[in-house]
Structure formats: C-alpha cells, structure tokens
Q: What sequence folds into this?
C-alpha cells in the first residue's frame, strides 16, 4: 500500500509550479492508506527520503509500531534518522522507526495517541524528523582526478599528468589514478604553507608546504566551481596556526581513512558524531568527543599518551574507567553533562590535571579523590545534587574558584576560616540558601549568590572586589572591614530599606545597583564619590536625592520609579561627567539649571523624563545641554515647546514628546540635522511638521493627533523606515499624497489607520458599515530597537472564524526577524484548523503551538521566538454560556487581564528557575551556562523554534482559560522588552483610563522606551465590554457609514478531516484574515517554511451557517449583507523581488512600485436595514441576498470607473468569478487569508459602491461629489476582464431575481 513516485520525476531538477504541486500531491498518502492507518493506533506512516534525490521528495511508508528498520527499509537495507536537520544516525536493524517517530512527537508535547498518528502522516514533519533510505554523502574531504604537475612550471622536465588528488585532514594527497589506494602516494603537509592561483593557467592552483625544503604541486581543475571550492578549503587549512582538523557535526560513524595520513595532526574535533575512539592517532594532543552518545568510557583514549586535553561531555557516561590513570600528561578533562556519581581513585595520579569539569552530573558530595589533585584551581560541580555544603571537605582542596551553582544547597556547615584561605571565588547562585556567611572565606574576591532566598549576607571585605547578590530577600548586608578594593556591587531586587554608609568610603567602587528595593534615602555623600561611574537606584521609595554633589565621576544615573519631586539644584552644575540621566516615573515638576551663564560645560547626551509633571517652564532649562542626543519627555504637562529652545539643541537625534498637550512641533526642528526619530503621538498636533526634509529621518510617529492634512517634499528621506499617522480622525489625504507615498515610501512602513497601510484608504472608503455590537476593540503598536531592526510582530483578528470570536497575538524573535513574521502570518490559520479537531481549550491551543513548530520549517531549526496568543470565543451550543478567554504562551511574551483594576496574569515564564522545568531539561542532559541559558542559547525552556535544542527546549505552551465577566476591562499582550521595563500593575494603571486601544498600546511602548528599553517592542491592548448576561446585543439605529476599516472578517476557507467517527468528519471553519502589522509577503509557505493550510488533504469548501448579532440571539440580524475578504499583502526585504510567491509576473496599476504592493479587494456590499445594529469594527455574516440590478455602460480601454452620486444612493456591486458561483470565492486559501484562485488572484476587482457620505468623524473625510482625484482607476490590461465580469453579473441578475429584495432597490 505504499505510495510511490517514478524515479524519472524524482530526478527532475527544474519543475514549473503546477508540476511541483502535482508531485507533492502524489507524495501524500492516498485515502485508502489513511483509512488503513486510522483503524489501529499501532499503525502509522513514516516518510522516507531517497539519498540520491535532489530535491528529495519523501515517499510515505506504511508500518506498525513493531515494524523494524530492516523491514521498513524495503529495497534499501539501511534506514537513517535525522533530527531538526542536524546529524544523521544509522538505525539498527531491530530499531522501530514508527516508535521513534511517536516518541519524538510525545516528547514534543502531543498527548493524544490518535493526534500523534495524524501528525506522523504529515509530510511537513520532515523539518523536525526525517528518515533516509541510505546515507546522504558528506563532504569530509575533497577528491577528484585532475591534471597535476610537480615542481616549478618553468622546468621543461615536469609535465602535466592525470592524477588522483585528495584534500583531507592537514595535507594534500596525490596518487596514481589506477593504483590510488595501493600505489605510491605523495603527501604534502599544508599547515603553515601556501595556496595560490596560477595566473598563466586557468582554473589552476599551486599548493606549497612549509619549511626550507618545501615542495609545490600545481593542480588544474576542470571548472571554475571546483577551483573555487578547493581554493576556499585549502586557504582555510594553510592559515591555521596549529595542526587541527574540525569534523564536528558530520554524522561520522568511522574516521575517514585518509585522515591517518596527517602525521602532524595534533588537535581533532569530533563533536556531535557517532564515533568510537581510535588509537591510531598517536600524536594527538587535544581530542573532542562530546555529544557522541558513547554510553561507555572510551578505553582507546588511554592509549594515547600525548593527550593533554580531552572532552567527553554529554555522552551518557555512568563511570570513568580506572585506566584513566595512565594519561599522565592530561591537563584538561571535561566530563560535564553525563550521569557520573563517583570517580575512580586512579584519577588522583594525574598530577598535571588543572581543570576537571564535573558539572551537571549526579554527585551528592564532593569526591574525595580531588584532594590529591594539587594542580587543580577550579572546582566545577554546577548542576549536581549537593544539598549540604560541608566546608570541612575544602580543607585539603586547593581550589581557588568554587562553582556550586544550580545544586540543592540549603545548609552550609562552617569550618575554621584559616583553613579556607585558598578560596578566592565562590559561586552558589540558584540554590535554596536563606543565610550565607561568606566571611568564612577570608580571601574571597568575587561572590555570586544570586537567586536564592538569602535574608542576611556576611562577607569579609579585606580582599573583596565584586558582589553579585540580586534576586534574594536581602534585608541586612554586613561587610567588614570596609572593602577598599570593591569595584562592583549588585544588590538589586531585594528588600533593602537602607544603604550602608560604608559604601561612601570605598575609593574604587565603579558600579552600584540598588534598584528594586525599599530604599527611602541614599547616603549623604554618595554623589561625592570620586570613583562611582554608574548608579542605579530606580524602583525604590526615594523622595529626594542627596543635595551634596561634589564633582563626581558619575556617568550614568538611573533614579526612575521613585517619588522624587525635584533633583539636586547643582546636579548638572557639578556633574561634569554625567552622560545619561533617567528620572522617569517620578513626580518632577521642574528641572535644575544646566549652567549659571550662557556657557555650559554639560556633556549630557541622554535625558529620560517620561511620566512626570513637567510643564513648559522646564523647556528653557534644557538649552544648556547642547550635546543632548536623546530626549524623552512623554506624558508630562507640556503645552508648547518654543522654537527658540529647540533651535539650540542642534545635536538631537531622538525626541519623544508623546502624551502631552502640544498643538505644534517647533519649526526649528529643521536645525537638528542628525534627527532620525520623532515620536509625538497622543497630542493635539494640527500641523504636520516639516521633518520629512531631514535626510537622516528614520521614524516619524504622529498618530492619535488632530492632523487634517500633510505636506510632503518631492523626495522623501532615503532612510525612512516608518511613518505612522493612524488615529487622526480629521486627516484627509488626496490621491496625489497617496500616490507619492506609494511611489516612494514602500521601502518603509506606512501606517495611516489601525490597519497599518496607505492602501487601506481606498478599502475603507469602499467598506460596508460595521454591523455588530462592540464586545471588544483593540489597538496595537510595534517599535524597533536601537539597531533599527523590528524583531517583533502582532496578530489581531477582531472577527475570527466568522463567529463571535477574536484572536490576538504577540511574537518576539529577540534578534531574528524571520520567526515572528512566520508566526504572525500562519498561526491564525493553524488555530482555525485546530478548533475543528478538538474542543478542549487546552488541547486546541496546545496543538496550535505544536503544529506551528513544524510549520516554521527550516527557519525554526536554528532560530526561535517567543509567542503569546489570546482567543476569545463563545460556545454556540450553550445558550446561557459566556465568553471565555484562552491564553497561551511560550518564551517571554506574556498576557495579563485587568479585572476590577488589578492585573490577573494569564501567562507563565518557563525557565530553569521552575523546579519542574529544571528536572525535565536535566533528564535530557542539557547544559546550563552561567547566564542561565540552555546550552548557551536561550533562557526559556519552552519556546517556538530552536528545534536543535530538542528535547530540552520544546514548544508546548502554558494555557490558561478564564470566563470573561463585566469586571474584566481589558487585557494586554506584550513582548519581552515591554514586560522587562513595565510591571503588570503599572501597565494596568497606565492604560486603564485610556479610552482608545491604539493610544493605550502606544502609551505602553512609549513608557517602556522612556524607562530605558532598547529592544524591539510590541503591545496589543484589547478593551472589553461584557454585559451581565454575556450578551452584548443592543438596539441601535443605523449609524452613518464609517470610513474606518475595521477588523477583517473570515474568508471562505478549506477544511480538513477530523479523526473518523460515526458522524463523519467536521468541516474546517472559515479561515481568518489577520491585520498584518508588518511588511511581509505571506502568500505561500512551502513545507520547509510553514504552509498555512493542511498539506495532506485537499481543501473542501464549506458554507458558514447564518449567524446573528451574538450567539444568544442569532436572529437579531435579518440577513442583509455578506462581506468577503479585504486584505493587503505587503512585501519586504525578505522577498527578492517584492512579488507574492504565488504570482508569476507583476501587474501594473494598483499601487505598484519597486518594492511591490499587492492589493486584493473582494468586497460584497449590500444595503442594511435601518433597524439593524451597527457599531464598532465587527462584520457579521449572513446569507447574502442577490445584488441589485445594474446596467453599466461598456468601458473603453483606460476608462476610469467612478463611484458617482447615484451609485451612493443606490447600491450596486461588480461580481467576480464564474457563473453559478453565487458570489462565493472558490480556491485554496492563501497565506494572507485570500480564498481567490491562485491563477486569477490579481484579476478580481469587486467594487462596493456604498461609499461613506461626508462627515466630520472617522480617519478620513470622503468627498461629497465625485472628484477626479478620487476615481478608482482600472489598469488597462484588466479592462476587458472587468467588462466580461460585469456582463456576466448583469445576465445573472436578470435570470435570478431575488424574492427578498428590499423595497428601495
């Protein structure tokens, strides 16, 4: 029953799209095969790739749990398995491939066996787990037959001869072609030699050895490609200073035979292979065998007497053999990440051993044999099982550095201090200590005790240089005598109420962090220190700072989140070195002067004063800081910013004046030639500033103001990345401005309304009125970090699945852009499918994240990102039920709910600090580095992507479901940077009284930036309005048509089959279309980079049943209109030519430029009865009545189709599709939510003529009369298509009159 593909098609290297899709479909399991599999949970399917195939299409192989690799291999005797695109391992003949696949999926997070069975039948699993029939060839050496000449080219004796040439290890091997393995070989050592191009001969290289008796071989290659490959590898080889070979991650089961000809080889890296040791390499000094799944101690290394460094980490070793005592030259021995609980006594004979890595094993005490290792200076036993630290065992140890982090130490048994003088560094972080007396180590220099529960800390100060004690319950700090050598002290996030006075006496202290404590007053002489360069005292209870300031060397002062009403009057006068001051979130009403005369010595460059009480009087005091580059004064009481004051700040680069009461931006901002960021949202600005003439400008945010028009120069700034004009209800843009933006500006991000796109202007004019109660509304914003790289993305679907549902998400890629964008474009479609596979909130949300892991494809193998998702739904089967909110998260993106004005957490941070997570990752022998990151990559143990860290890091989310009540006001989703800077309680308090979701989201990001966040930021604020009976239906009169484009409704979608039951399969819901807030082309994702639709079975169309205004009152809408998809697809730097990946060629006309913007309008609009409720941004779906008759006149080529006055009074529409489609768009659902057929996705133009009447509100003001600039232009190449569509539409209407046609039609 195996599905196969002909070998001819497998070897086809160049396929058109249709052929490629057909071949992919042939690779799917046939319906009969699926039925056979689903009969029994012990059955399944694996997908086997042919090693000779390029590209490698998998062929499904049906098997059972008991099928062995030998039987599943079919014609090939050997099967190989590959995880997350990494090493390829040979399966033993008795191993069971289906069992391996099922175990992988269970560890990934799936729970249900039937779902594991379904996932195993999906071909996209290949990016996570893949089987090969035969091993793919690996390049561990270069070889070939070429023309070779020895010696100098000028000598006539030497001739070109055909020879076998091999580049392997550290040497070049030249031999006869016939007797390449048995005949004479010429070996040329290359370390320290030369490789050069031969100019007189094409595609030739000269290889020369080092030393006075060097030899030279000339090799002529057959092509430039081979010449380039050999040159690159050989150049890397000759540039090495040591004789080393790196064969890590090569899936080797044995060493290449030619490697043994490298007699000078001293350093060999065999990490992450499947190799045993080989004693033939007798000259080795360094050998890395980590991650080779050895299982037993390799005895062969004991025969290599020259070894000085051996790495056997992460090999599941349970013991160290006694023969290790013969390795007398050993200096470094790494045994981290194994299962060791004891060491042999013979290890004590290694007197030269200076470093022994024993971290992350199973030791319960310090091995006694270590007392005999007199050369060792470091004790590395992090991540073991020590629960009591007996200092008496350190008497005979001569360790200077003791690393005991991540153990279970709760008790320290003291000993005589005189016997512990040799310890200079102590690391006991991440244990369970409640008290620590470090004074027992009299010569201690560095102390690490973070993340314990320490209340009292004692230390000897005579030699102390650095103290790291953050994240404890510290109330008392006793250090004596005064640590005169102390340079760094971090006691943040504790419960300190007072700062020790002796800190002022330290002459070398450079960094002091007191943030997040309960400090009410700083020492009087602290700002007189002659050494202190950085002082962090934020998040305390300070009411004032010391008045005494005497020429300190202070460069950075952070006093945010206190209760300061003023700053010291001479702070700027005496602080000559101050470069950065952050005094945000205080009660400041005025600022100290910068100088007493016109001249100023201030070198202040960054000033953060966000969220204070500053007024216009403070602006004049800023002019003395002439070197100011960054100025944040958001959310103060500013009414004006005088132009004369701005003119003196010529070096300004970044200004944030948001949340004030400004009406204008000073015109003298043009003097700031270095200005690249202007943020002034949430003011009352009426005039657009002339900042577009500044050539360095990158970001302009003037959202949520009172702008009525904008004026742009002919040439926009070349570095412009973002222009945000959303939330300006009076803004009226003419088409000339729109054309200019679309002509020049789509290499940056333009936001003219909440849907974040200029082209939305046209769609908002053509959109039907919003019908439906406003149960929720939202706003979101994104901001790039200091590197101007937007690594976050937001997802917002106000009407999800065509019912009373909504979906919101935030994604953070930390430093990568790819993963957030893939999550943003795909996750809503995955959730839509999962909703019809299971009804349990935890299951469908969990499976959404797990399925999304494979849809990330190859991008998710080495990259990762955090994600938070919130889904609002109403159970239509429960008439008395309420709305529920289901939240899920992985990584550091979080969601909180405001209930009665208090934050209710909906998320959980998964890290090694959680006992359950720590035990899980330790079961898989993962290494946790000193910065608490798994294998040094991420500090989150559950996160999207990073599949190469499986099974220690998995994408299984934390899921929380709450029932929404009238006390629930709103919820917030935020990225990592937001929650690092703003606490949940502050976030709730900050936006609770902000009526607009967009303004609330803007405020959160502005506050985070004002508090010092330099990372990418993303915030989504969803405001709720839930009534007592969970019904939000209310009688409304018909409001005037709103030009504001609301949330996207669902489009016609595909369906997949659920697990066969007696009732058959369930149809999949209509897929949702999200408001894509970042520029990216999302039309198609291959199986390697996440397809949004099911890849195993063809989609099936399904009609959505009629729904009412809410689930409790389905009849409140009498069936008046149906709205299809309105979407915009944006391309970005991720796309080579800016085209959607499903489009064969560009189409001129609709908003096209070099970066390519594709606009698809598929809008059906019919008149709504006046008695129907209509508000907010929701679109309610009902069976569509036939459109009114229309008799358009024939259009000539190039004719402009205008929405005239008569059209506004009498509705009409232009249909699309084939006769008999009944207005339904058929075809595969695309990545951007479109359901248009792929071949004609650009040939559909459906125009709804109910343009909004002119009114004062809304984002735009629609013209009362047809204006030449407001005409909808049909591209010339589409005129004939439109004529035919309109003709078919007219004929159809004449044949099928509607019995329910409204009287006014």
A:
């Amino acid at each position: 029953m195996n599905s196969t593909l002909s070998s001819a098609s497998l070897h086809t290297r160049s396929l058109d799209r249709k052929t490629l899709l057909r071949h992919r479909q042939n690779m799917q399991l046939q319906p009969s095969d699926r039925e056979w599999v689903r009969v029994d949970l012990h059955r399944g399917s694996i997908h086997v790739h042919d090693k000779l195939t390029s590209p490698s299409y998998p062929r499904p192989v049906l098997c059972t749990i008991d099928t062995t690799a030998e039987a599943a291999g079919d014609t090939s005797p050997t099967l190989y398995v590959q995880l997350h695109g990494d090493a390829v391992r040979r399966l033993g003949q008795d191993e069971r491939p289906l069992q391996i696949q099922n175990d992988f999926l269970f560890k990934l997070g799936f729970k249900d066996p039937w779902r594991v069975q379904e996932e195993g039948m999906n071909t996209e699993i290949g990016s996570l787990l893949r089987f090969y029939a035969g091993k793919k060839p690996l390049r561990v050496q270069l070889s070939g037959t070429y023309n070779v000449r020895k010696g100098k080219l000028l000598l006539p004796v030497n001739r070109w001869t055909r020879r076998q040439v091999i580049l392997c290890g550290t040497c070049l091997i030249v031999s006869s072609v016939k007797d390449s393995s048995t005949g004479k070989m010429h070996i040329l050592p290359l370390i320290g030699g030369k490789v050069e191009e031969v100019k007189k001969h094409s595609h030739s290289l000269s290889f020369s050895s080092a030393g006075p008796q060097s030899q030279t071989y000339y090799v002529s290659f057959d092509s430039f490609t081979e010449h380039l490959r050999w040159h690159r590898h050989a150049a890397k080889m000759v540039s090495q200073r040591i004789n080393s070979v790196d064969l890590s991650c090569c899936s080797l089961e044995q060493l290449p035979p030619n490697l043994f000809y490298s007699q000078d080889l001293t350093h060999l890296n065999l990490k992450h292979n499947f190799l045993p040791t080989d004693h033939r390499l007798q000259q080795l000094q360094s050998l890395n065998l980590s991650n080779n799944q050895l299982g037993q101690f390799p005895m062969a290394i004991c025969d290599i007497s020259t070894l000085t460094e051996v790495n056997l980490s992460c090999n599941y070793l349970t013991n160290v053999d006694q023969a290790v005592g013969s390795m007398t030259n050993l200096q470094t021995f790494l045994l981290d990440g194994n299962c060791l609980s004891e060491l042999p006594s013979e290890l004590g004979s290694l007197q030269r051993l200076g470093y022994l890595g024993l971290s992350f094993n199973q030791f319960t005490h310090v091995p006694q044999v270590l007392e005999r290792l007199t050369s060792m200076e470091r004790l590395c036993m992090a991540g073991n099982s020590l629960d009591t630290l007996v200092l008496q065992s350190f008497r005979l140890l001569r360790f200077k550095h003791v690393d005991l982090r991540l153990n279970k130490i709760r008790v320290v048994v003291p000993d005589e201090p005189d016997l512990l003088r040799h310890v200079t560094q102590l690391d006991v972080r991440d244990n369970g200590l409640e008290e620590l007396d470090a004074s027992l180590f009299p010569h201690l220099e560095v102390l690490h005790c973070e993340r314990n529960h320490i209340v009292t800390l004692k230390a000897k100060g005579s030699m102390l240089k650095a103290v790291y004690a953050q994240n404890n319950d510290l109330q008392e700090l006793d250090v004596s005598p005064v640590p005169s050598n102390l340079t760094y002290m971090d006691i943040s996030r504790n419960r300190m109420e007072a700062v020790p006075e002796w800190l002022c006496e330290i002459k070398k202290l450079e960094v002091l962090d007191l943030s997040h404590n309960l400090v009410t007053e700083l020492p009087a002489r602290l700002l007189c220190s002659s050494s202190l360069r950085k002082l962090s005292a934020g998040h305390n209870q300070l009411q004032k700072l010391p008045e005494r300031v005497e020429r300190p060397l202070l460069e950075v002062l952070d006093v945010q989140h206190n209760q300061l009403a003023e700053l010291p009057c001479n702070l700027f006068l005496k602080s000559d070195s101050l470069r950065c001051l952050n005094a945000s979130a205080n009660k400041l009403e005025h600022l100290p002067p910068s100088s007493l005369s016109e001249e100023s010595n201030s070198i202040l460059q960054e000033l953060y004063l966000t969220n204070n009480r500053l007024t216009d009087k403070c602006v004049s005091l800023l002019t003395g800081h002439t070197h100011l580059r960054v100025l944040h004064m958001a959310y103060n009481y500013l009414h004006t910013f005088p132009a004369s004051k701005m003119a003196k700040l010529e070096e300004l680069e970044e200004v944030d004046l948001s949340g004030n009461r400004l009406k204008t931006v000073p015109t003298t901002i043009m003097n700031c030639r270095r200005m690249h960021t202007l943020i002034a949202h949430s003011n009352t600005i009426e005039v657009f500033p002339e900042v577009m003439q500044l050539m360095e400008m990158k970001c302009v945010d003037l959202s949520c103001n009172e702008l009525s028009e904008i004026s742009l120069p002919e040439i926009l700034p070349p570095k412009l990345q973002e222009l945000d004009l959303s939330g300006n209800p009076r803004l009226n843009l003419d088409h000339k401005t729109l054309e200019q933006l679309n002509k020049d500006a789509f290499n940056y991000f333009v936001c003219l309304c909440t849907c974040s796109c200029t082209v939305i202007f046209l769609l908002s004019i053509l959109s039907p009125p919003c019908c439906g109660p406003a149960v929720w509304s939202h706003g979101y914003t994104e901001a790039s970090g200091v590197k101007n790289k937007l690594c976050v993305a937001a997802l917002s679907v106000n009407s999800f699945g065509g019912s009373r549902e909504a979906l919101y998400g935030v994604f953070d890629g930390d430093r990568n852009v790819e993963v957030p964008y893939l999550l943003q474009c795909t996750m809503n479609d995955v959730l839509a499918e999962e909703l019809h596979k299971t009804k349990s909130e935890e299951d469908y949300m969990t499976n959404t994240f797990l399925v999304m892991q494979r849809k990330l494809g190859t991008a998710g193998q080495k990259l990762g990102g955090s994600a938070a998702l919130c889904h609002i739904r109403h159970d239509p089967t429960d008439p008395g039920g309420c709305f529920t909110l289901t939240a899920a998260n992985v990584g550091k993106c979080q969601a909180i709910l405001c209930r009665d004005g208090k934050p209710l957490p909906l998320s959980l941070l998964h890290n090694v600090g959680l006992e359950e997570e720590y035990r899980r990752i330790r079961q898989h022998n993962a290494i946790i580095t000193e910065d608490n990151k798994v294998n040094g990559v991420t500090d989150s143990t559950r996160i999207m992507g990073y599949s190469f860290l499986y099974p220690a890091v998995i994408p299984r989310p934390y899921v929380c479901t709450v029932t929404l009540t009238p006390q629930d006001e709103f919820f917030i989703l935020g990225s990592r940077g937001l929650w690092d800077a703003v606490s949940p309680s502050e976030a709730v308090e900050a936006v609770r009284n902000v009526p607009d979701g967009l303004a609330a989201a803007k405020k959160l990001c502005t506050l985070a930036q004002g508090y010092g966040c330099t990372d990418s930021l993303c915030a989504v604020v969803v405001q709720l309005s839930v009534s007592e009976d969970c019904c939000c239906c209310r009688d409304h009169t018909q409001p005037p048509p709103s030009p504001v484009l609301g949330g996207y409704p669902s489009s016609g979608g595909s369906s997949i089959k659920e697990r066969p039951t007696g009732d058959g399969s369930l149809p999949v819901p209509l897929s949702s279309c999200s408001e894509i807030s970042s520029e990216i082309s999302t039309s198609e994702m291959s199986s390697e980079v996440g397809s949004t639709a099911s890849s195993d079975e063809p989609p099936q169309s399904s009609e959505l049943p009629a729904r009412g205004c809410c689930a409790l009152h389905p009849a409140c809408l009498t069936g008046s209109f149906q709205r299809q998809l309105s979407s915009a697809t944006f391309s970005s730097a991720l796309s080579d030519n800016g085209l959607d990946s499903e489009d064969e060629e560009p189409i001129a006309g609709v908003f096209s430029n070099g970066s390519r913007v594709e606009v698809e309008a598929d809008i059906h609009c019919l008149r709504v009865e006046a008695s129907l409720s209509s508000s907010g941004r929701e679109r309610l779906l009902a069976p569509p009545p036939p459109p009114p008759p229309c008799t358009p006149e024939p259009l000539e080529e190039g004719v402009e189709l205008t929405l005239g006055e008569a059209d506004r009074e009498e509705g009409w529409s232009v249909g699309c599709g084939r006769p008999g489609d009944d207005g339904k768009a058929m075809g595969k659902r695309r990545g951007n939510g479109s359901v248009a057929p792929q071949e004609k996705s650009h040939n559909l133009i459906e125009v709804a003529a109910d343009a909004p009447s002119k009114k004062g509100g809304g984002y735009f003001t629609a013209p009362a009369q047809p204006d030449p600039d407001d005409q909808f232009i049909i591209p010339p190449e589409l005129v004939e298509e439109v004529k035919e569509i309109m003709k078919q539409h007219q004929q159809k209407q004449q044949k099928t009159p509607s019995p329910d046609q409204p009287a006014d039609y």
Summary: The longest helix spans residues 818-835.
